[in-house]
């Protein structure tokens, strides 16, 4: 029963409630408009400023040593696997609903230790001694019980009591019984009065629920957390108009292993509001531990002053449920006088579910509504690219009344979106607009092992491989589902008007979002051996003629199943592979050329 589960959770939990949030204050002289005493908002409001620049070492070294020494199921972020057949069978039912292995979560400690995945230099940094008080807001709707509790414990355990005013658990009208009285009982028995539960009577969705929590907050600073994370070290950058977000480590939803994300990237969106990782700009590569400008936030965790959050209009409450709010806030920060920074010395592990039954139960398809709303308010003349990508989808959905968000933009005297394109993501048009500048190869990808078969992605969703199907009669310009390009970014992708879209990834040869990070999605076509090669893994696109499937196999120039013909091959471009096409960061090009030469030596 649930009560037995609850008792077992309490047994494995450890009431050792220590640790910290470290607040980084960016050297304020780097902000040209900053006054040492005050900073004005767009409405003329005066923000309090830092009065003392005395620093101290906020690390709790005893607790860090204690965490590192812990052993047991899931400790230090290690994977945990179910072995009992009854447990595995029971977990299958949980997974169908939750999209994660809930029984794994139940069997590892609620306050488990997590690995320190920060760059080593972070351990030597001291931070300001006097810091504003913070309200942490964790919103949830039908979250899995032990996942929710572990999120709260990880925050409490790593937050100095003198900084945390309160932690608000805002329940967005969950339908699970255990998220009411049983949750209230657990919180009352295991946390002090700073942890508070707020139950909303009606479903608001993530966007409005966060705003509701923010209105109730009493801290100067708001820290928003998803309900399925584990916090490590959380430096928060504070100046009046800066919003910060951590580097997100990978939290496996199946075995709950925490893996570090070695961040040398920046998160951006394209003109249809899809997220991509691009390499950092060269000027931000030298000091990887320093906070760096981030064009777009993931939205799962971020920190901002409460007064500034509401001064810039908080979220557009015309957005429904979730998704799109992180684009709106990111754009608003950059165009309306603020900025968004990613802090590599801050780490939070975020669970990305395989699926969510509760999301499928949403009454409307809210994402297209939200995306069109954001684009209509902020994209200016660039809106044409948003509609051109999918006219049917984007023009038929109702964006709602845009009066309020447009008034907010006008009142804040925000810059045009052209500023974002030219200064915040200066390579945005290069990466995400039309592909008429050239390709290394294009058209059908035809198997040499069986010339009647070509790659075909019809009906294949992301995360699946294309299949082998009878070739179209026109190999140079075949039907859309057989039309591929080896483009100027050296990606093997579906042909489309934009650089955006789906690319084949070398690991498994599955279709995923094009990410522009020159590793798993980088391909070379050797027109002599007819192989499509990924130099990073030294694997080649390989056909299985019997099953009509493709896979990644170590390259072997004698294997006929690795031989492919293109409808069109630009041999001049391929012969100048390291200089033609879009240029990567110099180190990336050097690494690629070295790997290419090694493979073909």
Automatic annotation (TrEMBL):
GO molecular function, one term: carbohydrate binding
Lineage: Eukaryota, Metazoa, Ecdysozoa, Arthropoda, Hexapoda
Keyword Transmembrane helix: yes
Pathway annotation: Protein modification; protein glycosylation
Ranges where the Glycosyltransferase 2-like domain occurs: 135-308
Recorded GO CC terms: Golgi membrane
EC number: 2.4.1.-
SUPFAM superfamilies found in the cross-reference section: Nucleotide-diphospho-sugar transferases, Ricin B-like lectins
Location of the Ricin B lectin domain: 442-564
GO BP term, example: protein O-linked glycosylation
Keyword tags: Disulfide bond, Glycoprotein, Glycosyltransferase, Golgi apparatus, Lectin, Manganese, Membrane, Transferase, Transmembrane, Transmembrane helix
Main location: Golgi
Top-level taxon: Eukaryota
Essential cofactor(s): Mn(2+)
Recorded family membership: Belongs to the glycosyltransferase 2 family. GalNAc-T subfamily.
Ranges annotated as spanning the membrane: 12-31
Topology in the lipid bilayer: Single-pass type II membrane protein
Descriptive protein name: Polypeptide N-acetylgalactosaminyltransferase
Coiled-coil segments on the chain, per record: none
InterPro entries recorded: Glyco_trans_2-like, Nucleotide-diphossugar_trans, Ricin_B-like_lectins, Ricin_B_lectin
